[in-house]
Amino acid sequence: MKNFYSIICLLIIANTSFAQIMNNQNFIDASRFDQHTKYLNKNEITLRSSVDCSTSDALYCEDFENVSIPDLPDSVSTSTLEQNYYTISNSDQVLVTGFYTGTSADANAGGYWPVSEHGQFAMTNDDACRPGGVTPGNNNNCDLGFETLTLPILDFTGQYDVFLIFDYYHDKNYGGGDANVEVSNDGGVSFTDISGPLPNLEAWQQGIFSLSDYNDQDSIVIRFVWSDAGSWATGFAVDDIEINELQDNSLSMPLFNQWLAGYDGFASSYSQIPLSMIPNSTGIIFQSYVFNNGNFAQDSIRLHASATGFTSQSTAVNLESLEQDTLQCSERFQPTSTGTYQLDFYLMSDSVTTATKSKSIEITDYIYARDDNEIDAVNSLLPSGDGVSSWERGTIYDIYESNTLYAIDVYVHNRTTANAKIQGKIYLYQDDQSFFLEETNLLSVTASDGWQSVKFANPVSLDAESQYLITVGGDGSALNDTLRIGSSGSVQSSYGYIVYNGWVDDNGTTATDGTTGSTPMVRMNMNPDVPGPTSIEDNSYSAFNVYPNPNNGILNISLTNTSYKQTIEIKNIIGQTVYSQIAGNSSTTTINLSDINKGIYTVSLINENGTSSTKKIIFQ
């Protein structure tokens, strides 16, 4: 059985900046069903020293640098099932016949495949494919069910124990599709799969295959195969292909990051962290992946990491050739002041020291963020229907110390419909479920390609050792009233979130709320002096107070305005209504619910025009 080794992300995902500004004229709306998404990652990493085939002594080498985009090298061929494969390359629409060359900008021409920078590389790209030159919709996507990139016939006569080494990007987002490597020893008449499905990850990976079964043979053909699985998908990219012997001593550090220990058992990565939110017990954890991609065993491998006034290293591990492991520094970083900190990482064994990789993290007073502040793609929060709330997108945050949330900050993209409405919401997130707590009033969007604060009229208390989901959405007042927000950087798997609010796709399937992989540019703002309006109209009629809170099930509701017909509604944490009545003319209503279970509930005051205001209460 052939050996295949690939860097696979366990708990860590590198999160470094990669700016990918979308060209507006090539924008594709997000009306396609956002399913099967995992976590999105834009790493600016190098899996091995940059391959320069002009100076390489490998048996075979191709780096796709010395061709004009979108052409392939003359010796490399491709095929596709799609007869009208038009794609965007260098902002122009071109006809291709399968794989073609391009850069990260070309990969993300469709807006959903922000591949990390890697020079020029070969790709096939369902996301950017326009069948017949027409921008695709739900029922108009390319047939990329069998895409091939084939290397020239190779002669292994006199060659023994060489390896196929290459970098690839394979995320399987938005529809999936598998990739694999096949080899023929009869000049391309028949092929054998030597890899099985390549592991998927939102990062460039390194593949290493032994070709020892083809020692001293001629007429060897190697090809890469990818399928879109019969649906709209993203794509598959290949670069820096070599057939060569392995170096004797070599280490790779493809993934590295800083973490806070998550309450669900997973490490959780943030780009901006309020100083008050860093737990004293654990601090910030430094972690990396290590891959011995050389011939010889490496002994006493350690991760070395440093920041301002801080250095640490991991426990040593020994790795045989082509083994991999995760390393974590023994000491934790505990910053004592706000500011931007440069974090440096490198690996050292008895034989090898890798180059230092650097990234930064910002310790703030009030802002809590997962995104990396540079827009990579656009999320369209389309209305579900006239008068029905639009999709909501957001991110899950761990709260380590009790605090107060005053606003949600969101990056609004300039393709948002003029005067569209925006609304922020917060949910308690427990046991993989979200439970609504509070919402802001609807605001008119004021930002254009910039940040906007969506402020709560009533600040929300955040409890320590809890997780919260914050989202933004619109009101769906018209089908063309669409809010578009930015997406940026990496997120640990299952922290991005989407709420569809009953949206149904073209096939009549109701979309299921849940975790995604994109990183919406949606942040917690804990600044009590955050500027910004709390409403776009006089909503004093829906203002009310609840006291005492917490309570024993007996509570008082004090109304600011009794001149409107209003309904008082109380729901439990799973959204079931436990109490509902029309508010009378009295300014204060006493409600006795002492016979129901203790826990978190919401009280809503709903006006006759459907506008509501909601508060969280605790029965104890």
Structural class: mainly beta
Low-pLDDT segments, ≥5 res? 1-47, 536-541
User: How many strands, what sense, and barrel or not for the largest sheet?
Assistant: 7 strands, antiparallel
Helicity level: under 10%
Radius of gyration: 27 Å
The CATH topology of the largest domain? Jelly Rolls
What's the CATH first level of the largest domain?
Answer: Mainly Beta
CATH architecture of the largest domain: Sandwich
Shape verdict: globular
Mean pLDDT: 81
Proportion of residues in extended strands: 35-45%
* Overall number of structural domains: 4
Q: Kindly, what is the distance between the CA atoms of the first and last residues, rounded to a whole number of angstroms?
A: 62 Å
Total E-strand runs: 47
In short:
The chain is mainly β and 620 residues long. 1% of the residues lie in helices and 43% in strands. The model is unreliable at 1-47 and 536-541 (pLDDT under 50).
Layout of strands and helices, then pairs:
Layout (H helix, E strand, L loop, with lengths): L3 E3 L53 E3 L14 E3 L5 E5 L2 E4 L4 E3 L1 H4 L13 E5 L3 E3 L15 E4 L12 E8 L8 E6 L7 E2 L7 E10 L10 E6 L8 E10 L11 E6 L5 E2 L3 E3 L10 E7 L6 E10 L2 E4 L3 E3 L4 E5 L10 E10 L8 E8 L2 E2 L8 E5 L1 E3 L2 E3 L1 E8 L3 E10 L8 E10 L2 E7 L3 E2 L5 E13 L3 E8 L9 E5 L8 E4 L14 E3 L5 E4 L18 E4 L6 E6 L6 E6 L5 E6 L5 E5 L6 E9 L4 E8 L1
